[in-house]
Amino acid sequence: MFEFVFAYRMPKNYQMGDKATREAWQAWFASMGDDLLDIGKPAKAAETVGRSGNATWLGGFSIIRANSAKEALEIAGRCPGLASGGGVEVGSLVNIR
After folding, report:
1. Terminal CA-CA length for the chain
2. Phi-psi region of 60 (alpha: psi -120 to 50; beta: other; left: phi over 0)
3. For position 37, which CATH number holds?
4. For residue 53, is it within any domain?
5. CA distance readout (Å), 36 to 54, 55, 85
6. How far is CA 8 from CA 14, 91, 96, in A?
7. Domain-embedded: residue 43
8. β-pairing verdict for 87-92 and 56-66
9. Which of 11, 62, 70, 81 would be a feasible disulfide site paired with 40, CB 3.0-4.6 Å?
10. For residues 2-21, b (16+ Cβ closer than 10 Å) or e, as one string?
11. For residue range 25-60, what is the model confidence (pLDDT) as tens digits?
């Protein structure tokens, strides 16, 4: 299995905290079971160095385990943030030790 980082890119007008949104995220995280290695944390403020999407901000991150990059993308495709106009950057993590 491989490890991936999900960086959540949320639209500028995204509002964290309503009950339905929290429940959707919690259900999605629960659906990953033991393959969710680090639930991460939401971010409430972020700055950018270099290029990044102007219409979004870093909303948080998670680290997951999947059998392939394709599977990681399928999992990311179920992220509740997509329904709000956000996105998920999926990066393959490399063990450099």
Report:
1. 17
2. left
3. 3.30.70.1060
4. yes
5. 29, 28, 23
6. 12, 11, 24
7. yes
8. unpaired
9. 62
10. ebbbbbbbbbeebeeeeeeb
11. 999 999 999 999 999 988 876 666 656 677 788 889
DSSP letter assigned to residue 25: H
d(CA 34, CA 13): 32
If DSSP codes are grouped into helix, strand and coil, which group holds residue 91? Answer: strand
pLDDT of residue 84: 85
Write the CA distances from 45 to 10, 28, 59, integer angstroms. 11, 23, 8
> What's the domain range around 27?
2-92
pTM assigned to the model: 0.85
In a domain, 7, yes or no: yes
Q: State the DSSP H helix or E strand holding residue 27, giving kind and residue range, or none if neither.
A: helix 19-31
Domain count, the chain: 1
